[in-house]
Every structure is written in C-alpha cells, then in structure tokens.
Amino acid sequence: MAFHLTLAFAFGLLGNIISFLVCLAPMPTFYQICKKKTSEGFQSIPYVIALFSATLWLFYAIFANDATLLITINSFAFFMETAYIAIYLFYAVKKDRLFTTKLVLSLNIFAFGSICVIAMFLTHGQKRVQLLGWICMVFALCVFVAPLAIVRKVIKTKSVEFMPFSLSFFLTLSAVMWFFYGFLKKDLYVAVPNILGFMFGVLQMILYLIYRNPKKTGDDDQKANELPNQHSIIDVAKLNTRVSCCEPNATTVAHSRNDREEQQTMQINREDKDATNTV
C-alpha cells in the first residue's frame, strides 16, 4: 500500500514538473509581445481557456481527498495564465481587449461563478466532489479534442508548420504521467481525460513524422519543369530584341547612304563657292 502511494506521488510529481514546463512554453511569445509593444496577430482564447481549466481543477482539488499535487500545479497555472492575460490586455488593441474582457467575464466569472453556486449550495460532501469531477472531466475532454482542428489542417496541407513536435511530445508525456497518477489514486476524473490526451498526442507525433519532410506533388514538379522553359523563352526574347536593335534593316541603310551623298554634295558646293569668292 505504501509503495502504491509512493508510486502515485512519483507520477504526480513528474506530472507537476512537465506541466510546469508546458505552462512556461508561451513565455517567448509574450516576450515578443512586450518587445513589439503590441499583441496584434496573437489570440487570447487559449490562455482564457487554460485559466478556466486551472480554476476548475483547483476548485475540485480543494474538496478532493489528498490532492496536494493537483493544487500545486493548478495554482501555478492559474498565476501564469492570469499574468499572460494581463500582458495581453495591456498591449492589445481596443477590439481585441474588448473581446478578451468579454470572454474572461463570461467564462471565468459568470460560468465559474455559476458552478461555484451550484456546487456549494446544491451539493454536499461526496456529491460535490463527484459533480466537480464530472465537470472537470467533460471540460478536459473538450480541450483534448480541440487539437483535431490542427490535425485536420496538417493532413490537408501536408505540413507540420503549425504543430511543433516538442509541444506534442511534452503534452503526451504529461498525459501519461497524470493518467498513472489518477489510475493509482483511483481518481477516474483525472485518469479518463488523459487517455484521450495520450491518444491524440501520439497521433500528432505520428503525423509529424509522416509530414515533416513534405513530398513534392505532381503540380510542384510540373511547375519546376516549366520554370527552365520559361527562363529560356525570356532569354531568347531578350536576345532577339538585342539583335533587332543592333541589326538595321534595308530602309535604314538606304536612308544612311542618301544622307551621306547629300552631305558630300553640300560640302563640294561650299568648296566651289569659297573658291569663287577668293577669285
């Protein structure tokens, strides 16, 4: 029994460390926002949803039995996501600031407030833990399903530009740690969502290995073959233009000869006139 609890603690601790690193992942993005002094081009939705998720799990962990490791990581996540949203709001344009404010109020204030009222006044004891556990589990499943849009984009474009391997790897590793933590603690609300998280994480890594070196399609090969021909046509056209500019036609030659004869005649007449005046 002691070994069982120790193993659960070990997986929970590893889950904390990996989740800690995942929470720090957006820091380069917000460094760029602070450096450029604008959040234009970035979206606040992932951070608002992450804040809502951390708040839910933190509320669940308060009432669950021996959930210290859930409290530690979700407290840190709550602090980091709040900081990210604050920085975003500070540098956001008016339109994005208004949208983010409405999203925070509707999700993190109104929705979470409603859950708190229901849990605190309509349920008690184990029923409260079960209600909060189901809410957390359903929301976590929805969050894990969200990457399907990225998976679809990768398959459609045959490019992994928007799906970095490192992030997929650490999210998969985190799902494994939290699954075993929930399994060993017999906390199905933690274990079940991470099964789906593990499956989608593995899928993303497989897609990355498949599409990391995109193959040239038939259209690309055809365009590549057409490019030399186009360059040849352009070069020939330039050469023909130069030749036609440098090679005068017969009419031009005739006009040149007539001009020369007229100039010679005028010069002879001038010389005769000068000789007459001298005499």
Keywords:
279 residues; single chain; SWEET; transmembrane helix; globular; mainly alpha; sugar transport
Question: What does this molecule look like?
Answer:
It is found in: Cell membrane. 85% of the residues lie in helices and 0% in strands. It has 279 residues and is mostly helical. The protein has one domain (1-211). The longest helix is centred in the middle third of the chain and has 29 residues, at 94-122. The protein is globular, with a radius of gyration of 37 Å. Mean pLDDT is 77; it is low at 217-262 and 271-279.
Secondary-structure blueprint:
Layout: H1 2-24, H2 27-36, H3 45-63, H4 68-91, H5 94-122, H6 126-145, H7 148-157, H8 165-184, H9 188-211, H10 218-246, H11 250-278
How many domains make up the 3D coordinates? Answer: 1
Helix content: over 70%
Order of helices and strands: HHHHHHHHHHH
Number of strands: 0
Describe the structure in brief.
The chain has 279 residues and is mostly helical.
